[in-house]
Amino acid sequence: MLLCGFVWGKATAAASVADAVFLGRVTMIRLVGARGNPTPNEFVYDGELEVSLEVDRAWKAVTSATVEVLTDAQATACGYPFLVGQYYLVYATQRASTRALETGLCSRTKELQAASADISALGPPTYEPTRSKQP
């Protein structure tokens, strides 16, 4: 699980703790693991969101053009409020049980508009897809 102390350090310290760090654009969000079949406007108490992101560039562990990350379905459970079409700098950890990447409000994940200092501190990316259109 994510540690809330993760959000308070410097970008380089957060990157050293994270299993993956990348900038990406959300292309799809889908609810997984919820009981029942909630309607689009129904409040969901359980489950997670699987967020698909098109990678713009990466600093750690990402070597593919798309990445899926999990986050809790509710912000009150530290789920990150991703929006389709928006760019995010994602700091993700890997679940030991499933090897899936996860992030949340307690990570240093943030919208691109708030990430310029982090991007500068992280230095040159280690991966950039050839089709990348940098924001």
Structure description:
With 135 residues, the chain is mostly beta strands. It has one domain: OB fold (Dihydrolipoamide Acetyltransferase, E2P), CATH 2.40.50. The protein is 10% helix and 33% strand. The chain is built from two helices and six strands, in the order αββββββα. The protein has helices at 11-17, 116-122; strands spanning 20-32, 48-60, 66-72, 87-94, 101-102, 110-111. It has a five-stranded mixed beta barrel. The longest helix is centred in the first third of the chain and has 7 residues, at 11-17.
Topology overview:
Elements: H1 11-17, E1 20-32, E2 48-60, E3 66-72, E4 87-94, E5 101-102, E6 110-111, H2 116-122
Parallel strand pairs: 3-5
Antiparallel strand pairs: 1-2, 1-4, 2-3, 4-5, 4-6
Task: Note poorly predicted spans.
Answer: none
Number of domains: 1
* CATH topology grouping: OB fold (Dihydrolipoamide Acetyltransferase, E2P)
DSSP strand (E) fraction? Answer: 25-35%
Tell how many strands the DSSP assignment holds. Answer: 6
- What would CATH call the class? Mainly Beta
Would you list the SSEs in sequence order as H and E? HEEEEEEH
- Total DSSP helices: 2
Proportion in helices? 10-25%
Indicate the overall shape: globular
Helix/strand structural class: mainly beta
Q: Can you tag this structure with a few keywords?
A:
single chain; 135 residues; mainly beta; OB fold (Dihydrolipoamide Acetyltransferase, E2P); 5-stranded mixed β-barrel; 2 helices; 10% helix
